[in-house]
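Researcher: We're teaching a course module on how sequence relates to structure. For the next exercise, students receive a sequence and then see the predicted structure as tokens, so they can try to spot secondary structure elements on their own. Here is the exercise chain.
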Amino acid sequence: MSIHGTLKTMNVSDLLQFLAAGRKTGTLKIGRGSIFKQIYLENGSIVGSSSNDPKEFLGQYLLHYGKVTEDQLQSAMDIQRQSGGRLGVILSSRGFISQKEVMESLRTRTLEIIYDLFIWEEADFEFFDSDPLPDDLIRIQVDATSVIMDGIYRIDEWSRYRRVIPSDRTFFELNPGWTKSLPDSKEVREVLYHVERRMTAAEICYNMHTSLFHACAVLFDLIEKGVIKVAGEVAVVEVPDLLALKLPQSVPELLTRARAELKENNDP
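Model: And here is the predicted structure for the students to work with:
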């Protein structure tokens, strides 16, 4: 049985509640633009999730929380490209991180992928109970009810943040009275570094390898404390639809097109 619709008609909280109550097994796929996420369920319990959003890749998550360095991550990714294998297994086998830390990080990342969906206002969804769960899925066991409760809390917090930080294009500046002697963490110092460079909320999120929710939580706290203030909002930049441009998708296709253009240009 396939269930489909939009988050306008059925939000993530209601979706998960419905699937948990029916003890459903299958894959809930949710897409917005070019970003797609999957939530895997077994007998109504959440057993995993995945995302094609680069910010939610395991490597980015480990970087943000200081579990690995950029050099260690790059080394592991090079090995992965050459021989395949799971990134977490490679990192632990190289001694960069323990297997326990990998499993804890996978669990937290799985939940973060789902929590982010609670602040999505528009998206399409479809549930497939005929799709088998991925063979390489590293299972976690999470009660859907607890995820829903945490997700609802995030919705409330997100509405508070949005009253102060109206969009992802909002940028900030330091208040004149702020002092560098202010007690802060490494994370706060990193945010202030990006604020001084007039980065937007989205850019800060990207550079910190974290979720937009978490970045806005730190920014909101700094605004509340009077350390920074909203300075403005950058204009919307129209990005061309690359798929509509029908660009070459492979090297042979690129060469074929290049030869055709050269022939056309050289013809009298």
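Model: If you want an answer key for the exercise: Residues 144-164 form the longest helix (21 residues). Confidence is low (pLDDT under 50) at residues 241-245.
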